[in-house]
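G., the chain you wanted modeled:
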Amino acid sequence: MDKAAIPQEDTTRRPWKLCTVTRVEEAKIMARMLPILLSTIIVNTCLAQLQTFSIEQGQMMDLHLGSYLFPSASVPVIPLVFMSLLIPIYEFLFIPFMRRFTGHPTGITHLQRVGVGLVLSAISMAVAGLVEVKGRNAFNDHQEKISLFWLSFQFGIFGIADMFTLVGLMEFFYSEAPLGMRLLSTSFSYLSLSFGYFLNSVLVKVINLVTERVAPSRQGWLFGTDFNKNNLDLFYWFLAKLSCINFGNYVYWAKLYKYKEEEVVVEVKKDESAAVDGGGQMPILRREKPVGAEEEKIRSS
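Predicted structure as tokens:
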């Protein structure tokens, strides 16, 4: 990318022919953030499962809580309840506590926060598989329905995961993006969300096509609408394993990523008190937090 800022003898000075150093550095920043963005697609695929299959699971459970009847479509409110309760705890207890050990202003870095969310999403899918096994065995063996609120375990864990991942991503993109792209960069979290939902549709079709060929019953894991007769639990565990693999991929890219605060900024500063070639300019290297797009250019004063 550095070659884009190096003028050639036959290079015409046009925006798409010769770029400023600032534009090249901004392109580098966006390229470094792209693997982080792609590594969060799987967690949003898991979210899509909770908002589709888990709600259909609830329709086959006992919807009563005492004399009250709860529709299964109301279950997704559980993650929101968990988030509303845990965000104040995170802000006022967790961050000050972790700050004592890490010295970081936010307790843990943005990428560490996203990593915690990825781990919790894998746990949520594993728990969803266990709940599905429990519900299916209860119905097939005893003709009983387990309570709808068994789903609160997987939804609650994923609510905590979403608190870490979504908010961590938004803070990461906002703080690391170039100044002129900060508002746009916050939408990258929702770009990951949309890719996750599309991947969900692809996974469901692919899993059904593959498993109906290898299963003895010649029916896919997600065949039909009666979850007591298919293998939804295997699909959840597949997502849990896929999430673990994705977490390993995320750790690899997160270790390679360098925060903007770690970059070295070169400032050309005129030293009026030193006689360097009759008052010339001398380069001074120092570490500083990056400045805006225009101020980031090499300047002289």
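Confidence is low (pLDDT under 50) at residues 262-301.

Shout if anything looks off.
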